[in-house]
Please model this.
Amino acid sequence: MTKVRVKQVKSTINRPKDQEQTLEALGLRRIGQKREHELTPQIKGMIEKVKHLIIVEEI
Model:
């Protein structure tokens, strides 16, 4: 399965609670933080929901 690296590049201030919770579920708590995940349908959905707050790159 494909692996992806997600990096938070924008703040969660003044964002809906569900977007904050999605970032936390991805393991991102502050700007600049990176996490690697297997690209499952669940992770794809989370990435799509907060794509304006993160950068995604394939590994």
